[in-house]
Amino acid sequence: MENMVKIINTSNNPNPEYKTTGSSGMDVRAFVVGSIEIAPLDRALIKTGLFLEMNETLECQVRPRSGLALKKGITVLNSPGTIDADYRGEIGIILMNLSDDKVVIESGDRIAQLVFAKVEKVTLENVEVVNKTERGEGGFGSTGIK
Questions:
Q1: Which phi and psi (to 5°) does residue 63 adopt?
Q2: Which residues sit opposite 93 in a β-bridge?
Q3: Which of 25, 28, 74, 106 is least enclosed, having the fewest CB within 10 Å?
């Protein structure tokens, strides 16, 4: 069963959409007045003109677009960004320029992708110990690279 997500689009851009039948993410576009320049190693909040309402079993993840990352060094700073089910404000995308050149964002540019995912709610139980595993406390590269 497909989940329905309600959208208000105050921009002059089309709604986010899947570009292919196998796409996991919907491309989202910038909605800015004029253009926004992002200097090398700088960041900017880019508005979209979009507002969502979704079932509380969902979250909307904001992820970088691979083409922008490779070709222009642009990424989503808090990737993946999370849009919670109860958030009703305008979606803003925090873009970071990791390149050596300034990048210009104009209204209508596809700047990120939105991926909707199921959210599993849990109950935390306070305990004194947790079960041991083969891995144990090893982290941050403890399993090697090959």
A1: -125, 155
A2: 46
A3: 106
Q: What is the pLDDT of residues 87-127, one digit of tens each?
A: 999 999 999 999 999 999 999 999 999 999 999 999 999 99
Q: Which of 45, 27, 51 is nearest to 111 (CA)?
A: 27
What is the C-alpha separation between 45 and 128, in angstroms, rounded? 43
Model pLDDT for residues 45-95, shown as the tens digit of each residue: 999 999 999 999 999 999 999 999 999 999 999 999 999 999 999 999 999
74 inside domain:
yes
Q: What's the domain range around 94?
A: 6-118
Q: What is the CATH number of the domain that holds 103?
A: 2.70.40.10
Cα-to-chain-centroid distance, residue 105: 17
Q: Name the residue among 46, 52, 90 with its Cα closest to residue 64.
A: 46
